[in-house]
């Protein structure tokens, strides 16, 4: 049974990528998955429910990738570099998933999974904070609100990735890693205050 559910999620990702959420149909998703109408509705009550489930699953995989690179905890500069490089690599290696997270998450139906998304985001924030807090206490990282810290790491990298995903910039986002890391190190470490 889990195989059929996973097949539907995989098919949905491809159909959403090709047609967008509004253009995607349950019939197209079922056809791509080789699933019956009954099978679809056994697992999902609607296209919106399937999209919400897919969103949370993709977000979970992204968070795992991000947390894995700071366990065991690296130093400040190395951790910043790992998080930025991981974000860039994850987007490049998971283009459909990244596009789904960035574009589809702005849809009004995304509110259906808002609480679950916030819970997942809180879990990753706790993991990052477990790495960051001792480095702030030791003076290696500048003290600031956790959300501001994370935005300095992911925000610029995400901007570069969105430009690539949209086709505005065809260059590989990983080619900007060194500059993004240098900027983040200057903004976030005590070294940047010198």
TrEMBL record:
Pfam family, one: TetR_N
Record keywords, A-Z: DNA-binding
Residue ranges occupied by any HTH tetR-type domain in the UniProt entry: 2-62
Keyword DNA-binding: yes
InterPro entries, per database record: DNA-bd_HTH_TetR-type_CS (IPR023772), Homeodomain-like_sf (IPR009057), HTH-type_TetR-like_transc_reg (IPR050109), HTH_TetR (IPR001647), Tet_transcr_reg_TetR-rel_C_sf (IPR036271)
GO molecular function: DNA-binding transcription factor activity; transcription cis-regulatory region binding
DNA-binding region extent: 25-44
PANTHER family: HTH-TYPE TRANSCRIPTIONAL REGULATOR RUTR (PTHR30055), TRANSCRIPTIONAL REGULATORY PROTEIN (PTHR30055:SF187)
UniProt protein name: AcrR family transcriptional regulator
Species per Swiss-Prot/TrEMBL record: Afipia massiliensis
